[in-house]
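Hi Y.,

Following your request, here is the sequence exactly as I used it, all 281 residues.
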Amino acid sequence: MSRYTVQRVGFTLLALAALLVVIPILWVVAIVVVRGAGAINWEFLTTMPRNGMREGGILPAIVGTLLLTLGTALVAIPMGVGGAIYLAEYARDTWLTRAIRLAIINLAGIPSVVYGLFGLGLFVLFLHFGTSVLAGSLTLAIMTLPIIISTSEEALRSVPMEFRTVNASLGGTRWQAIRNIVLPQALPGIVTGVILGLLRAAGETAPILFTVAAFYLPRLPRSPFDPTMALPYHLYVISTQVPGMPEKIQYGTALVLLILVLSMNVVATTIRSYFRRRREW
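Below is the corresponding structure, written out as tokens. Let me know if you'd prefer a different format.
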């Protein structure tokens, strides 16, 4: 068998594998869109739920999801990128740094329910934050930190060493090289890590179940110490805990969550593409 034939067979198998992944995803998305589009209207998006969540809208769940994602970003991005800068640019290659990197990789694979129990014990009970937006945001931030740190560190390490060498030859400090050269060049990769982390946080149910989510709360949170509804948990509740729930409301809620996550992805991808075009290597 010639190498050309082997290549054709390999490409064909890869294409089939891609189709096996993409087709079920598109099928699920199509079902959600078809069955949920009828529920999407202005009242559904901007009013409070009523009649045991069988009527009205999902405004508290939308606002709660946005607040949790924003709180997660405010905590996780500075800490994650800062930790990545230290590991990539300042830390020496010792047994301690290797152990830290191994721990970060392992933490990225821990089930989200474990983070939820950790947040319950630390933020809700020990620090007395109660079930609140603050406790939920901190828990989600800890859950997303390993993803942001690992991807950001790889992005920083991918910047050619020649950039740093030129900066040093011109008398620049290490921090000047990081701030003016390395970070701008690594920004597309860093944004990718942030996207992955925040999208996971926006769609999680277990951590917010323990730390922030309310079963039925037809009002908006007034402070970071208030509980709130959230789309992932709200979808779980109306799908499994509320008898007689109209199917279109269930699929409509799923469609709103899907649109929210995809919108965040599109915005972040646009930002990443902009900085990638400005990259100099």
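Residues 3-36 form the longest helix (34 residues).

Thanks again,
Q.
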